[in-house]
Amino acid sequence: MAYSLLLSLLYLGMLCGNGLVSARSELFTPDPSRGPHFTGCRSREQETFRCWWSAGIFQNLTEPGALRVFYMTKHALSEWQECPDYTRTVKNECYFNKTFTQIWTSYCIQLRSVRENITYDEACFTVENIVHPDPPIGLNWTLLNVSRSGLHYDILVRWAPPPSADVQMGWMSLEYQVQYRVRNNSHWEMLDLESGTQQSIYGLHTDKEYEVRVRCKMTAFDNFGEFSDSIIVHVAQIPSKESTFPTTLVLIFGMIGVVILLVLLIFSQQQRLMVIFLPPIPAPKIKGIDPELLKNGKLDQLNSLLSSQDMYKPDFYHEDPWVEFIQLDLDDPAEKNESSDTQHLLGLSRSGSSHVLNFKSDDDSGRASCYDPEIPNPEDLATLLPGHSGRGDNHPLVSRSSSSIPDLGVQQTSEVKETPIQKQPAVPSWVNMDFYAQVSDFTPAGGVVLSPGQLNSSLEKKKEEENEKKIQFQLVSDGAYTSENTARQLSANVPSSPGPEQGYQTFPTQAVEGTSERGVPGCPPSDSQMPYLLPEAPPSPILPPVSDYTVVQEVDAQHSLLLNPPSSQPAICPHSPNKHLPAMPTMPMGYLTPDFLGNLTP
Amino acid sequence: MNRVKVLQAWLWCVSLWSCWLSHAVPLDCKDETGSLIQCTSISQEKLLDRVIQHAELIYRVSEESCTLFEDMFVPYPLYALRNQGGTMCHTKPFPIPGSKTEIQQISDKWLLHSVLMLVQSWMEPLVYLQTTLNRYDDAPDALLNKTKWVSDKLLSLEQGVVVLIRKMLDEGILTPSIFEHSLTPDDEPSPEIPESVLRDYNLLICFKKDAHKMETFLKLLKCRQSNKLSCLSY
């Protein structure tokens, strides 16, 4: 009961009392509207404490000594005692030193005016509750790290406890609070309480100035001390880009250099690379004769080479009707030495005895389909030649199948032209021959025997003969032809013809009916057959039409072609050149010209 | 049958005796490796550190309890009571040093004994506090838990101090003195809230003050143990 009364009284007293010294109140701001009152009591180190008061409104009490402080400790039920020490330097301060300071005991102080014996103010407290530690000292910071981007950094802040607080002995245990802010900013960032003497601050921005300060309080108490002096933290933005910049530059330049090197390498070794990456497609391996060998090799090698080829058929000339052979006269040295018109025509060189068969490699592969690519056995071909002395190196000409021998290389002499003889193989130089055979004899049946002899009659000779003999021969302008009719005229005293400069004249003779090399008897000579008909009508008797073609019946031992007389088939013109040759070129009657031969090919 | 009965009785006796033995044998201790070894005594420094830790914890929890109670039950103007450090704290029958100078002059023995007496003096009031707090309708559980925890820790603290006294002072265990508390538990069925509130608040404040005392004493003692010169001199 008494206890409860006491409590209630105390409660009322607290409510009514003025100038309560509250541990949480903000002191030291004297209230001018009030009378004399305590403005605050503080202890710095829990060993001493001070109290301050203010006269307030009552200005007449400002002189020293007008107001006095009395204190009493509840601890020992002592009396009111006066302030042990009025501080001389500071006005209105009462200082309690160590001897007068009791911890864990409640003090009550009173502000009295002694003269009037009025208690203006009273306050009770315990010392540990009014402890406001001094600010920590020695605040400094160190850089912990900087972020990779160089925009943020962390620092470690260190300080020392206030020297007045006896932390070492354990008399006071302090807790610290660090605050920081951007400079000149109004808002302070507060960190958690730290019982140690260091703390790290994370996430500060570079190029910004920061202020850091620290204060402390006793553990499990509420009274913070004053803040320490602020320190400025500033980290300049490390130009980390520079450190990375050269590396990126180096990388870029390195890449460019490598690319340039690669490009140069590729361009310099283009061929090789082409071969490596795009290997050439191997050409089909066809067994053939090395063209280089044909150009440069000796005839012995060629012979062996050609003989070893499988595709040469010895008897091809029997089977292939399209191949015609022309006999060549090799044994007449005089003829060899003479430069025949044929040779001129063919453009062969007569120098030397290079027994080289000139084959022209016909590029026209289209024609190869028409013919079997058969090349006659050179030896067999050589045997066809009259007077073949067994030399294997004499190769006769193959008339029209030049296109059928595409693989044979040609030793081209400089004079071998392709133009007039495109369709025919070139005549070897040593062959002194004409394309036309001489009619040597007549058979009783009416056949004409052709011999490989040559009635060589150059134009000059003919003229000489004309000059000499009052030539009755009709010469072919180019001299390459031996006119059969002229031969007939020589022998049969055929009525003379006009001058030699009249070109061709066809004299179909009665005696030679059916004996011409060409033409089918009975066929009316068309106009085209006689392109060289002179304007004036030939005064000669009209001869029966001479066939353009005749059939070679056989070859005798002397290598003469026996031509059969054509049967009288007037209506049949199997080989009418009109059929085959729509455009008959200049063609004398009765003569087989090389061009004609060529034109006859289908 | 008789033999069976005798056998059963015998087995029961043996089992009971073994149980009694197991209880009687001191607990096996585990060292750092985890193997069971005979309990070894703790070093004095470690013990002192642990005691100090206990005291610190108790002090902090008491402060938190005080704050909790204050926020819940105490109106704002009465916060000044806290500042006063408890007006009606029960007095101690023995003198307890109150200033730093006094503490520095006191011997280790007196320090330890002072701590022990403080601890022992608060055993019962804390129990009382628990009962009174339970009577509040809206007492926060945290407060109740904390008070409970504190009373438990206080017991272990007492044990530690006793061992410490035995070690440091080579004294026997003093017989615990029985303190008469001025605070008697109220038997009123429904006390007025202001009185009980004031009372409890006062109790909490006083306990907090004494916990602070204990912690300070023990820390000073530790300083003395480690470095006697700086702790004793000014």
From TrEMBL, chain A:
Residues 357-423 are annotated as: Disordered. Keywords: Cell membrane, Disulfide bond, Endocytosis, Glycoprotein, Membrane, Phosphoprotein, Receptor, Secreted, Signal, Transmembrane, Transmembrane helix. Residues 399-414 have a biased composition (Polar residues). It comes from the Eukaryota. The chain crosses the membrane at residues 245-267. The keyword Methyltransferase does not apply. It is a single-pass type I membrane protein. InterPro entries: FN3_dom, FN3_sf, GHBP, Growth/epo_recpt_lig-bind, Ig-like_fold, Long_hematopoietin_rcpt_CS. It is found in: Cell membrane; Secreted. One of its GO terms (cellular component) is extracellular region. The keyword Transmembrane applies. One of its GO terms (biological process) is endocytosis. It holds the Pfam family EpoR_lig-bind. CDD domains: FN3 (cd00063). Residues 1-23 form the signal peptide. GO terms for molecular function: cytokine receptor activity. Residues 135-238 form the Fibronectin type-III domain. Belongs to the type I cytokine receptor family. Type 1 subfamily. This is Growth hormone receptor. The lineage of its organism: Eukaryota, Metazoa, Chordata, Craniata, Vertebrata.
UniProtKB/TrEMBL annotation, chain B:
The keyword Transmembrane helix does not apply. It holds the Pfam family Hormone_1. Residues 1-24 form the signal peptide. One of its GO terms (molecular function) is growth hormone receptor binding. Belongs to the somatotropin/prolactin family. Keywords: Disulfide bond, Hormone, Secreted, Signal. It comes from Carassius auratus (Goldfish). This is Somatolactin-like. The gene is LOC113114411. GO terms for biological process: animal organ development; growth hormone receptor signaling pathway; positive regulation of growth; positive regulation of receptor signaling pathway via JAK-STAT; response to nutrient levels. One of its GO terms (cellular component) is extracellular space. It is found in: Secreted.
